[in-house]
Design brief:
The complex is a heterodimer of chains A (125) and B (235).
Chain A: H1 3-24, H2 30-48, H3 50-60, H4 65-124
Chain B: E1 6-12, H1 19-29, E2 34-39, H2 46-52, E3 58-61, H3 67-81, E4 86-89, H4 98-111, E5 115-119, H5 131-148, E6 160-163, H6 164-172, H7 179-189, E7 194-198, H8 216-232
Parallel strand pairs in B: 1-2, 1-4, 2-3, 5-7
Antiparallel strand pairs in B: 4-6, 5-6
Helix pairs in contact in B: 1-4, 3-6, 5-7, 5-8, 7-8
Chain lengths: 125, 235
């Protein structure tokens, strides 16, 4: 095994283990961990088995093997980013609705309190 | 028949210096209106000033800054939930003189349109705004003619009145960020009618426009792209 392979394996293992513990601590939803595990195991396989990347690139007709590796990772990264934009927009929408509802509800509560105070005053006098 | 109920919605962000005058003017010129201030998480005393104005003022304090779209939509939601017949949207910065709102009111009842826009360009004597904004408004003018075949001379104006049908729709769907031009397309898409009436507008007395020269290309790009999507989106 060459030096850069060891580095690759170490990096992949670190990624997999980190994602595992993050999900375990409920700081990431299982749904999102799927893509990260896929990326982790993919880089692990590529680093551990030297011939794999050459085979892969020859299937796709790529002459320079590492660029096939980068292409796959880049596609993964794009997909993740796209997914994040969608999630973020959804969150923003939910957040907006909640803020609006909360504001309106607070106003209703104030109006009710005012009414109640008035009724109390009139029943006391 | 019950009396028609109208809600004046004032979106306000850091407008402590002008909000009281706007509310007082509404009281004077539109005494039959209920007044709802949507305080979009201002960092100054906007909410306090609005509450301290004489008479009943409804104030919604939003806990996060939502931007003009989210703030105005809060007004629609409130109006929808409380069964109002009309919503008049008036900026909190004093640009829209409430005395002119009467014209909007008369127009929506006379024409039966679902939304009436107060335009500063149908009226010669009005304040004319900056050159870059005029250019932007011109672009929208041609865009509207192209897409919905309706001439709208002041698509960015936020001085508007809406009827029940429009309130119902916009309480569910209202564009964010820079909603005014986009809302025109949206209403048209849903088969609601729009007309314009000339109004006087004033230069803002305090504060600054949210659209700085640096932001205006972004503004145009964002609005054009959201207009495009509003146009092609299935109902």
């Amino acid at each position: 095994m060459q030096y850069f392979q060891i580095l690759g394996v170490l990096f992949s293992l670190m990624l997999i283990i980190s994602v595992f513990f993050i999900v375990k601590a409920r700081r990431m939803r299982e749904k999102y961990s799927l893509v990260w595990f896929l990326i982790g195991f993919f880089t692990l396989a590529i680093s551990a088995f030297h011939g794999l990347i050459d085979k892969l690139s020859s299937i796709f007709g790529v002459d320079y093997a590492p660029s096939a590796f980068f292409a796959v990772l880049l596609v993964c990264a794009y997909l993740l980013l796209l997914h994040m934009s969608v999630s973020l927009s959804g969150l923003r929408m939910q957040n907006k609705s909640l803020t609006q509802e909360l504001g309106i509800t607070k106003l209703r509560l104030e109006e009710l309190e005012k009414k109640l105070d008035k009724e109390r005053l009139s029943s006391n006098s | 028949m019950d009396k028609e109920r109208t809600l004046a919605v004032i979106p306000a962000y850091n407008e402590q210096q002008s909000i009281m005058k706007v509310i007082r003017d509404i009281r004077q010129y539109l005494p039959e209106c209920d007044v709802l201030v949507v305080n979009d998480c201002s960092r100054d005393r906007t909410s306090e000033m609005a509450r301290n104005t004489d008479g009943d003022v409804l104030v919604v304090d939003l806990c996060c800054n939502l931007g003009i779209g989210g703030a105005v939509q809060t007004g629609f939601k409130y109006a929808h939930a409380n069964d109002y017949d009309y919503v008049i949207q008036i900026d909190g910065d004093g640009q829209h003189p409430p005395g002119e709102a009467r014209k909007l009111y008369d127009a929506i009842r006379k024409t039966g349109s679902d939304m009436v826009i107060g335009s500063r360009f149908l009226d010669v004597s009005s304040f004319r705004t900056t050159r870059s904004r005029r250019l932007g408004i011109k672009v929208f003018y041609y865009l509207f003619r192209l897409l919905i075949r309706t001439p709208v001379t002041d698509g960015t104006s936020g001085f508007r009145i809406y009827n029940r049908k429009a309130i119902d729709l916009l309480s569910r769907l209202y564009p964010e960020d820079y909603p005014e031009p986009d809302a025109i397309i949206l209403l048209n898409k849903y088969g609601l009618s729009i007309c314009e009436v000339g109004v006087e507008m004033k230069e803002r007395e305090h504060g600054h426009s949210s659209i700085t020269p640096i932001k205006s290309p972004y503004y145009m790009a964002k609005v054009i792209i959201s207009i495009f999507f509003s146009y092609i989106r299935a109902r």
